[in-house]
Amino acid sequence: MNHSTPSPDPSPQCGLLYLVPTPIGNLEDITLRALRVLKECDLILAEDTRHTGHLLKHFEISKPMLSYHKFNEAAREGQVLDRLKDGKQLALVTDAGTPGISDPGQRIVAEALASGFQVQSLPGACALTTALSGSGLPTDTVHFFGFLDRKSARRRRKLTACRDMDGTLVFYESPHRILKLLEELNDLMPDADVVLARELTKKFEQYVRGKAADLWAGHAQLRIKGEFVVLVHQPGV
Ligand code: SAM
Fold first, then answer.
1. What are 4-46's pLDDT values in tens digits?
2. CA 154 to ligand 1 center in whole angstroms
3. Which residues have CB under 8 Å from 179's CB, separation 6+?
């Protein structure tokens, strides 16, 4: 393996879309390359310009921004592609973590590729990979579901369908529904090993590990504030 080959330097006249991961809590978790791209690009597409404004200020970066979020991504498509046609280099960021992972990004990536533009995805902070590697659960086969539906019947259908899946199941879940998910896991797969990865990279980072049935039985003791990744593995499946 050659560790010294830099990723191709795009020619300046060619429009290019960068996907730039940002920290999921700890501001140190941004790469040198991400900072360089944010400094050198022509425009930052940001899920929330105020939020990204704080990040840029922290790193003393001053750059024009355009909002790009799930409510305007369809409307923005033409504008973004026009800028790429003009040869601009754009950097897409979301509030935290990797664009396109339960966040805006997939749609504009598909459009940019279909229109023949280059897309460069930078590696970096992501709650999915951080939780998975810290969980201690098997990492060879992984199924990522993002957020489950809010509707009980649809959640249950999805969880029932993944009950027989081999490997580690990974969910993002809001603190409002974390107990609901534990109850569902207790009902459907009580013997599964569950890891609750909470507030990753932040001051109150915590991994809670146990059988689904035991975590549900002891749920009154759990701290359910903050952000969670829930990982599930059924031994023997
Ligand atoms: N794109 C992001 C990524 O790369 O992880 C995910 C964005 S999604 C809108 C937000 C969800 O990711 C949260 O509800 C939580 O499930 C998970 N998440 C993000 N940051 C986290 C953290 N610091 N600790 C635990 N979970 C986190």
1. 555 555 554 589 999 999 999 999 999 999 999 999 999 999 9
2. 22
3. 219, 222, 224
What is the CATH topology of the domain spanning 127-233? 3.30.950
Q: List where CATH 3.40.1010.10 sits in the chain.
A: 16-121
- First and final C-alpha spacing in the chain: 35
C-beta 94 within 6 A of ligand 1 = yes
CATH architecture of 16-121: 3-Layer(aba) Sandwich (3.40)
Q: Which ligand 1 atom is nearest residue 202's CA? A: 23
Residue 5's pLDDT is 56
The answer, yes or no, to whether any atom of ligand 1 lies below 6 A from the CB of 90, is no
Residue of the nearest CA to atom 23 in ligand 1? Answer: 200
CA distance linking residue 116 with residue 114, whole number of Å? 5
